[in-house]
């Protein structure tokens, strides 16, 4: 199956700091999505990206679809304690499954 | 806001027993998925379902697994004879249309514990 590697694997940051994480794939995708998962909960969709080079924001979150279609990044500005959780990227090709990344665990220290 | 709902939220079963996990996808969605997540690990694809048949499945989805859409709303995952290693969170997801927006929405999950 397709491998999506996320980095970093985990982050410990102070409240108010900006966060950046990325996701790389060995194959191209038509769509990149970013999800957040809280403990014991299902992944919640944060941002969806549909075109190479696209930059999309959702509040303090900004994500970009890489030009090569093999990568994406997610930035969180001015982090707050409720940003804590695991962030997953997912790639999708039309008609196929959603391939999930390995996850980035974010801890925000108040 | 429409959402994917899963029942039960937690199921404990004895090894070798059959379990059925239930999902109600978002009503106008056409593609349905089951994923699982072993504690602390990544989300793994099991199976996708479209037009009343399996469209893709992973190597995890062996003969012990089956899926069904018995009516217009439910989507079920059956594990015929559970093993200890089937213990995981099972997530159902749905997605609207091929060629349309590819936003998959996930349910809250069913935590399956096999003892």
Secondary structure blueprint with pairings:
The complex is a heterodimer of chains A (110) and B (115).
Chain A: E1 4-7, E2 10-14, E3 19-25, E4 31-37, E5 44-49, E6 55-58, E7 61-65, E8 71-76, E9 85-92, E10 98-100, E11 104-109
Parallel strand pairs in A: 2-11
Antiparallel strand pairs in A: 1-3, 3-8, 4-5, 4-9, 6-7, 7-8, 9-10, 9-11
Chain B: E1 5-7, E2 10-13, E3 19-24, E4 31-37, E5 44-50, E6 53-57, E7 65-68, E8 75-79, E9 88-95, E10 105-106, E11 110-114
Structural write-up:
The complex is a heterodimer of chains A (110) and B (115). The mean pLDDT of chain A is 94. In chain A, a hairpin with a 5-residue loop joins strand 7 and strand 8. By secondary structure, chain A is an all-beta fold. Chain A is globular. Chain A has no helices and eleven strands. In chain A, 0% of the residues lie in helices and 55% in strands. In chain B, 34% of the residues are buried. Chain B is mainly beta. In chain B, strand 4 and strand 5 form a beta hairpin. Chain B is globular and about 40 Å long. In chain B, the strands form two sheets. In chain B, strands 2, 4, 5, 6, 9, 10 and 11 form a seven-stranded mixed beta sheet that branches. The chains are: A mainly beta (110), B mainly beta (115). Chains A and B meet through strand 4, strand 5, strand 9 and strand 10 of A and strand 5, strand 9 and strand 10 of B.
């Amino acid at each position: 199956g397709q491998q999506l590697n996320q980095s970093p694997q985990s982050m410990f940051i102070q409240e108010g700091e900006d966060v950046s994480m990325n996701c790389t794939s060995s194959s191209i995708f038509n769509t990149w999505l970013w999800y957040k998962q809280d403990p014991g909960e299902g992944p919640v969709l944060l941002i969806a990206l549909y075109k190479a080079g696209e930059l999309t924001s959702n509040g303090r979150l900004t994500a970009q679809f890489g030009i090569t279609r093999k990568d994406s990044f997610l930035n969180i500005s001015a982090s707050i304690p409720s940003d804590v959780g695991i962030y997953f990227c997912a790639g999708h090709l039309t008609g196929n499954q959603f391939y999930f990344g390995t996850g980035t665990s974010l801890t925000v220290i108040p | 806001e429409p959402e994917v709902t899963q029942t039960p939220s937690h199921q404990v079963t004895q090894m070798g027993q059959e379990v059925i996990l239930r999902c109600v996808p978002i009503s106008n969605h056409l593609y349905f998925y089951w994923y699982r997540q072993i504690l602390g690990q990544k989300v793994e694809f099991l199976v996708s379902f479209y037009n009343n048949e399996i469209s893709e499945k992973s190597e995890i989805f062996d003969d012990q697994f089956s899926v069904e859409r018995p009516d217009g709303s439910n989507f079920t995952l059956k594990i015929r004879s559970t093993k200890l290693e089937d213990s995981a969170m099972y997530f159902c997801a749905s997605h609207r249309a091929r060629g349309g927006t590819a936003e998959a929405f996930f349910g809250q999950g069913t935590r399956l514990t096999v003892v």
